[in-house]
Every structure is written in structure tokens, then in C-alpha cells.
Specification:
It is a single chain. By secondary structure, the protein is mostly helical. It is 57% helix and 6% strand. The chain has a 3-stranded mixed sheet with strand order 1-3-2. The protein has one domain. A hairpin with a 3-residue loop joins strand 2 and strand 3 (120-124). It has helices at 13-18, 23-35, 42-65, 70-88, 104-108, 137-157, 167-176, 183-199, 208-217, 227-235, and strands at 98-100, 112-116, 120-124. The relative contact order is 0.14.
């Protein structure tokens, strides 16, 4: 799991595997590793932050100034994904392909999605016509990529409760299905947002509250989330 630039000790694969039937436990173990004090030198931390900011500036210019076509943006997107994986996901998602899919936002009301099928991949809307609130297209695509990375991390290292026959997973099923923005995802994304601020030098908004509310709107199962408890715990 560790990579050349890994700067925190990540949760071991053995630890995550042992907790794979509990997405919450996986999220908590990962969050703990993310918030632990960063042991790298100040110089390396500044260098890494500058590297990401330069990439973000070039990325924004390519989209909003140069108006490059999606196919011409893919190499830059892949560079950004490698940086994000290394800094926020311990290099554990480097093998997850990322690509564009036109009209996701128009046709499916989504800026991106993560496939959980025979192989895992992430697809993003290259135009993001409506954008996320308060963000430009460039920011929307990058923050959606981090958002989807959180989904991919949990699916990769924990059980997808909706399909598991294990008793404990059946008990947890109401908390994690829907759009996948349940308690485990909330725990992980809180830590990722905080880590992004410290390590990337940007305030990342992964739309945690909005997506949890949207999940609730399309579900009749009252057990899905005790929303008042979640609201107080995660959004107070």
C-alpha cells in the first residue's frame, strides 16, 4: 500500500482485511491514519503542496482558459489522480482507472460515479454543466474525483453490504446502501476533507450533507440513517 511518496503510515492490508465486514471500522482505521501527525519534513510537505497547487493551476487553465477537449485533458487528469491517490489514499487506488463519460450530469444527475462491477473504475462528466455550488468546472471535476475516490476506497477495502450474506453485513445493510453516502462514507470523507486542507492546501468540499440528504429522499427505509443523529455528529 505504501508508495514512494507515502508520508503517513497507512492502515496495513492485514488490518483492513480483518475489518472488511465492517465498513465503519475500515473508515475509522483509515481516518485515524490520515489524522495522525505527519512525520515528513516541512520542506517535503511544502514541496508536495506546491506540486499539487501547480497542477491545479495548470488544470484550471486547461479547462477554463484553453477550453481543451476531454480527450486532451485525460493525461493531465491522470497526473492529478496519481497525486491525489498518493497524498489522500496512501497510493492504494493507483490502479483504479479514471476516465470521462459525456453527459453524466445531464442524463443521470451525477458529476461522476464509481463502478463496483467485475472491475472498478471511475468516470467523470468532463463538462459538469451545472457544476457544484460555488465551484468552477475545474474544481467540480477534481472534488468529484476525490468524492468518488472515497467510494472506491471503501468498496476496495470493505464489504459491500448490499450483496453480502454475512449476518453482520445484513445488519449493516440499511446504513450503507442507497447512494453509498452512509455512516462509513461520512467518517472517511470527514478525514479526507481535513487531510486535503493540511496536505494539499485547499479547502475541499465533498458535498457530504447534500448527498446524504439526497439518499434519504429516495428511500422509504427509516432504518437507513437516524438522520438527526448523523446531522448532529457530522454536520453540527
Amino acid at each position: 500500500m505504501a508508495t514512494l511518496e507515502a508520508h503517513r503510515k497507512p492502515p496495513s492490508k492485514q488490518l483492513l482485511f480483518a475489518k472488511k465486514h465492517s465498513p465503519e471500522a475500515v473508515a475509522k482505521a483509515t481516518a485515524l491514519a490520515l489524522v495522525k501527525r505527519d512525520p515528513i519534513s516541512i520542506v517535503k510537505r511544502i514541496f508536495r503542496r506546491q506540486k499539487f497547487r501547480k497542477w491545479m493551476t495548470d488544470w484550471t487553465n486547461a479547462i477554463e482558459r484553453d477550453r481543451l477537449r476531454p480527450e486532451d485533458l485525460l493525461p493531465a487528469l491522470h497526473i492529478g489522480w496519481r497525486l491525489i491517490c498518493t497524498i489522500l489514499f496512501f497510493g492504494a487506488l493507483q490502479d483504479v482507472p479514471v476516465s470521462f463519460k459525456a453527459h453524466l450530469n445531464r442524463d443521470y444527475n451525477a458529476f461522476g460515479w464509481t463502478s463496483y462491477g467485475n472491475r472498478m473504475f471511475i468516470e467523470l462528466d468532463p463538462k459538469a454543466e451545472r457544476r457544484r455550488e460555488g465551484m468552477g468546472v475545474a474544481e467540480t471535476i477534481v472534488y468529484t474525483l476525490i468524492h468518488e475516490g472515497c467510494h472506491a476506497f471503501l468498496v476496495n477495502f470493505s464489504c459491500y453490504c448490499e450483496f453480502c450474506g454475512f449476518e453482520a453485513c445484513r445488519d449493516r445493510k440499511p446504513f450503507e446502501i442507497g447512494g453509498g453516502h452512509g455512516i462509513a462514507w461520512q467518517i472517511l470523507t470527514m478525514a479526507v476533507e481535513d487531510s486535503a486542507g493540511r496536505c494539499l492546501g485547499v479547502k475541499v468540499d465533498l458535498q457530504r450533507r447534500k448527498d446524504a440528504v439526497n439518499d434519504l429522499r429516495v428511500r422509504d427505509d427509516a432504518l437507513y440513517l437516524n438522520f438527526e443523529w448523523v446531522r448532529r455528529k457530522f454536520f453540527a
